[in-house]
Write a structure and sequence with these properties.
- The protein is an all-alpha fold.
- It has 17 helices and no strands.
- It has 2 domains: 2-182 and 239-469, Up-down Bundle (Growth Hormone, Chain: A); 183-238.
- The longest helix has 41 residues, at 429-469.
- The model has no long low-confidence stretch (mean pLDDT 85).
């Protein structure tokens, strides 16, 4: 189950490393097409993951998990042989739909397979894999892409997903399922609202947050979410009962999960370019360079439950956000002269925060839902993570680009990426790299402050809810 999680989450991170190769490929994608090659997977993953969990609860978690892995393999194979951008985008959508069927059902299978006394530890391990998967995507993607072709990234995913499907078929237990029918109207409204919201988030940096297109997308999301709420409140068996969000613990845990992945994937977005442009790392070394973030997740995650029992949920959550936000702020001070070891030390600090946050928040979300909705609960966790990831990339991209373009030398004005600026003014490479580092620092500073503020809101809401119950 952990390998399945690492595969589908790792693909979100790995594709960022392939962007330079895609840009120079025979597909000749435009700048906007490159964005959609990256984000189509995220959109379908995030929007279908709650329906994917509900389908597992209804039709059998093992069955839906295997189907998701097969669909993931088919999408990856289509991506590897795609003759043009249109086919590649369709393939990425198929792969994202497969991932949406995989992720929520891994946790649902695990919760059925382990005894009650091991469930908290199991959730902690599963939650840690959602963070480790992003780092493994960077490392594995860097290793595969060092061969020189973006197609190899997708080709490598095919045998892995087929092997995992065979292992799931042989090893995973069959869990009980319920006979409640899926709510088609509620599902359609939820997917439509999620798509509209994600489109607004993704297009905001390119079109402008106040542009008519983005405003219409956000307004459509608000209308569709309102309609979804009204339909679900009347449904006999809702996809996700909106009344659950009356629970302060569930609200704060969902906001906390969004915040953690907001910070982590903003870091992933900047890290790849910073290490390549600022430190001169190869694509393989860039993937390996994020490893210090992983070490605390591997080492400390299993002990978080004991820490929470000793100092309390709120204190553990507060520590988590202090480490994540503080680490990002410290990373924002890095420049071309900063040693990698100093950079790695702050990655390690940020990783401590992620290690504390993921098991704590995942347990809070899982504990707020009944066992019969284990798939939906895992889907809710995945949805909050993907929304946080998309928002983090969008926000840091906006801040970085604004600062980068304003700091460029005069003869490189009009460029929006480092590659464009270097092509326009090849003799001004040091100033162009300095402009990028300035933009990255400004972006990480903004993200770090946002994580600290949102983290304080999460802890405050949790404290107030506990005081109200007392």
């Amino acid at each position: 189950m952990c390998a399945c999680v690492a595969l589908v989450v790792g693909m979100v991170a790995a594709i960022n490393l392939a962007v330079p190769l895609l840009a120079a490929s025979d597909l000749h994608p435009s700048a906007s097409a490159l964005v959609w090659i990256v984000d189509t997977y995220v959109i379908f993953f995030a929007c279908l993951v709650i329906p994917g969990g509900a389908a597992g609860d209804r039709f059998g978690r093992k069955r839906v998990l295997i189907a998701g892995l097969v669909l993931f393999a088919a999408g990856a194979l289509m991506s590897a042989i795609a003759p043009n951008v249109a086919v590649l985008l369709v393939s990425r959508a198929i792969t994202g739909a497969g991932a949406a069927a995989v992720l929520p059902n891994t946790l649902a299978v695990l919760l059925h397979a382990v005894p009650a006394e091991r469930k908290n530890a199991t959730i902690a391990i599963w939650a840690s894999m959602t963070g480790i998967g992003g780092v493994l995507g960077n490392i594995g993607g860097g290793a595969v892409l060092s061969g020189g072709s973006w197609r190899w990234l997708f080709a490598a995913a095919v045998p892995i997903s087929v092997l995992l499907a065979a292992l799931v078929a042989a090893l995973a237990p069959v869990s009980p399922r319920h006979d409640r029918r899926l709510e088609p109207l509620g599902t359609a409204l939820f997917v439509g609202a999620s798509v509209a919201l994600l489109l607004g988030i993704i297009q905001g940096p390119e079109s402008g947050w106040g542009s008519a297109t983005v405003v219409i997308e956000f307004a459509s999301a608000a209308v569709l979410f309102t309609a979804w709420t009204l339909v679900e409140l009347r449904a006999e068996h809702p996809l996700l009962d909106p009344r659950l969000f009356r629970l302060p613990a569930l609200r704060s845990a969902c906001l906390g999960m969004i915040t953690v992945f907001f910070g982590m994937f903003a870091l992933f977005y900047v890290n790849a370019s910073f290490l390549q442009y600022g430190k001169g790392f190869s694509v393989l070394l860039t993937g390996i360079g994020i490893m210090p973030l992983t070490v605390p997740i591997l080492v400390f995650a299993r002990h978080v439950g004991r820490l929470t029992h000793r100092i309390g949920l709120d204190a553990t959550t507060a520590l988590a956000f202090a480490f994540v936000g503080g680490g990002l702020l410290a990373l924002s001070t890095s420049d071309a002269g900063t040693s990698y070891f100093g950079y790695a030390a702050w990655l390690f600090v940020t990783g401590i925060g992620v290690a504390l946050a993921l098991p704590t928040l995942s347990s809070a979300i899982a504990g707020a839902l009944p066992p019969a909705q284990a798939g939906v609960g895992a889907g809710l966790q995945a949805t909050t993570r993907e929304f946080g990831s998309a928002l983090g990339v969008a926000v840091i991209g906006t801040v970085l680009t604004a600062r980068f373009t304003s700091a460029l030398p005069a003869d490189a004005h009009g460029a929006h990426t480092v590659a464009q600026a270097l092509a326009t003014a090849p003799g001004r490479a040091p100033e162009i790299v300095a402009a990028f580092i300035s933009g990255a620092s400004t972006g990480l500073r903004a993200i770090g402050i946002a994580v600290l503020v949102l983290g304080a809101l999460v802890v405050l809401q949790s404290l107030l809810s506990r005081r109200g119950r007392a």
